[in-house]
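Q: Here's a chain of 260 amino acids. Please give me its 3D structure as tokens.
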Amino acid sequence: MNTIGDSDFYDAEVHRHNVHFRAAAAVRARDRVLDIGCGAGQSTREAARAAVEGSAVGVDVSAAVLERARRLGREEGLGNVAFQLGDAQTHPFPPAHFDLCISRFGTMFFADPVAAFTNVRRALRPGARLVVMAWQGADRNEWFTATREAIAGSRTPTASASDLEPFSLADPAGTRRMLTAAGFAGIAFADIHEPVLYGPDPAAACDAVLGLRHARDLLAGLDAPSAEHALDRLRGTLAGHDTGGGVYFDSRAWIVTAHA
């Protein structure tokens, strides 16, 4: 979902989560902040505004969203923010440089999470903090289950590995082992229970859902009449979640904190 065309939607979708995330990050005036999977850079720019005597660097694998991030940084007059194209698993970060690493839903897709977090940890000075927001399990995220069930109808499709990638850090025990292996300590989890916004109305929400990989994959396996029935069911589900002030789905996330 994190592309130039929908970055504004993405920031609006997780607005309520971002309030908790920003509070947990607690960026200090002199912090040098690294933001992993920064997308269009909202969290990076917020960190830069808080680090008035420090700096913030956002890293992402998408050149397109980074161009938008750089433009927004310039428009906001932020001289202490920079954006770099790179994969956190292999990117040559300066060693022992950063005081804080943050990531808002940007660390769930690593091919080798231990290698990636080890590389990030090397970029942190001793005692530096890690603050990561990640989804809890699929069964605790209605934005996934309700839309998937609506499209599938009476079928019960098995979630593929790619479907479950957003939930790769859902298990606290597994995440704790992974971060420990990467050289982090003091690992803690905070439960964040907030709705996500999928659009101002059902039509906009339908466009947003159809941009999700799990929805596209389900529809791709259907013939034309079945796909139209699936879309009708999806529209009905979205209408049922229309509050009059937007289409909302329940969700739960973790804020994972640790130190190097």
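Q: Can you summarize the key feature?
A: The two ends are 31 Å apart (CA to CA).
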